[in-house]
Amino acid sequence: MTWLKGIQKLRPVLVSVFFILTSQGGNCLVVSPVGPTLVNALAGTNVTLAVSYSGASDPVVTWFKGPLPVGTWTINANFPPDIANNSWSVLEIERNGSLTFIDVPLRFTGSYTVELTKSGQGIASATFTLNIYEIIQNVTLITETDFAQEGAERFTLQYSMLQGVVEQEIWRFNGRDLKNSTRYLIEGASLVIFGPNRTDKGSYSVTLMNPFSSVTTHKNVTVLYGPDEPIVEPPPIQPFYKAGDSLIFSCQAEGFPLSIPQWIFGGQILPDFHQGVLNLTNVQTSQGGSYTCSVVNELTKEKREKNVTLKVYDVPLGSPTCSVVSVNNADLQYQCKWAGGMPEAQLSFPALKHPIEQNTCNITAKSPRNFIPTVETSVDSDGKIAVTIRCVSEASPPAVVSWSQGNESVVTGSTYQISSDATQLKIRSYNISTFLLAPNYTCTCRNPLGSQRKLFQLQGPTISDSSLFPNQDGTIITLTWEVPPTSLVTGFDIQMKGPDLLSHSGGYSVPKRSSKEYRIIQQKPGYARSTDVFLLDPDMTCRFRIIPKARLTDGEPSKVHRIGPGDGLSGSAIAGIAAGIPCSILALVLLIGIIFLIFYHHKKKSNKTRYPVSRALEKVKTIQPKAVSHNILNRGLRPPPDYNSLHQMPSERSGTLPMFVPPAPVRVATTV
């Protein structure tokens, strides 16, 4: 070992000699690693730091661990290598200068340097890094306490193992890698969480690795937190309640473990509650006061409270009594009293004062007046139908508004949103049936002097009335319409049936046609109540109607409004008329011919020679009409008169000739 120390002292001199020789161009001693210079080995195995050299024969080889020599030998010398006392059972210097470790222990991990020297040849060196590892076994992850607590300064997780050398460790939270930051600190075998909170609850794991093994272990961490400030529903709490009302209050608070709230009134825990719900029926004025919701975390003993002041008013009995008395015969004193009630009724006469002038003002208390709820419908950015119902009643003091659906009170949540002054209720849903199938809504406006209540049912898109107003030329019309107060309408489709609208140049925007189906020409928002339609052809007939819509649901169309000269004749009617004209003309000609033939025949018959009839014959025809009829019936015929005797000479006649009587005029009538 004394010889080794001497060599260590001469090391700078040898290095100087090496540089001098190399600068003079002499032969150079060179040593080179055989294989990688970073060597990983498993504890208990054999490993060699192999080298090769050239440029000199039988050089002196010296191995160093860090700055300390652990062995030296002259290659091919007859004496054995000089090995450090604490390493002689492990280290061996090979004949080529390599260093071999036998059953290498963990403590031999480090940086090793080999130096070869030869007189006149200089110094050559090479450096190795040797890492000795063990198989990682039995890794466990432990914590200082069973639970992390929100608000604590820190929470630490630490791993331990039976054996093993860790080259790399990875910490994860719910599968996400953790790095050093303001929230986390990884040092040694620990993970420190600064200021733990409820979001740190989850699964933590650590993975330990070296070139020969890898082990991962997990641990679930529970964070105790809360209770948070209790939340009392339904908000907002009304300023006051009337004696006889029924009230339900719910108190909840976030925390782990979950605590059951308690209601305290007058220093006593109330028994009439379940899961934090306080139910007061037929409330009386004696039940007015401060109610406390108390929540305690059973593990951390943290306690939170929420106070709710409940005011219960009772209406005074009967009617106020007023009187006026004379004071010193100069002044009038008015007195007004209203007995009973809680709190007592008070009368005040406020005055406004100014250094120059004093004035007074009066105010009259009024109970809520009758009102009509209004409904506005729109579509929000999420595509949901948003229905806003507004109830406002004139009252002094202002009326407090409450909402209910069926027999249940309406509170603010995912579906319902009540405005800060409670006068507006907003309902949101994708489906219109949510509104139409829901029970009736009730809006109640109340102040100490009375209340007004309105019960109503929402209805689908509907148009109650519509009208059409054309301009003087018939080229522009104005459509107006109305909807029921509780109808849900987000828009309107203006539909038209008839020819297309004219373009600005005076012609049709498309080839002129007459549509048999309604088509949409305009779309209007839900608040619109009128629209104008331009560029109509006054010589054509058009029909219009309005379709109310609630998002994608169409309501019943309005009545149909017509503008134009009328429908006119259809094509088939015109074809029938055209085909019937020749037939009508032919029939008329035939009729005229028939009339002419009848007239001609009658005229010809009237022109025949009429012979005179004897008076005796005429007398017989006149006196015995029945005998003729009788003879005819008995098939007896009277022989006709002998007209030849009428032409005999007077001397041949047996009697006087009858007087000639001209025939009576004949009237001819023809019926067509």
TrEMBL record:
Gene3D superfamilies: Immunoglobulins. Keywords: Glycoprotein, Membrane, Signal, Transmembrane, Transmembrane helix. It comes from the Eukaryota. Residues 230-309, 373-456 form the Ig-like domain. PROSITE patterns: IG_LIKE. InterPro entries: CEA_cell_adhesion, Ig-like_dom, Ig-like_dom_sf, Ig-like_fold, Ig_sub, Ig_sub2. The keyword Membrane applies. Residues 1-28 form the signal peptide. The keyword Signal applies. Pfam families: Ig_3 (PF13927). The chain crosses the membrane at residues 573-600. PANTHER family: CARCINOEMBRYONIC ANTIGEN-RELATED CELL ADHESION MOLECULE 19, V-SET AND IMMUNOGLOBULIN DOMAIN-CONTAINING PROTEIN 10-LIKE. This is V-set and immunoglobulin domain containing 10 like. It comes from Poecilia latipinna.
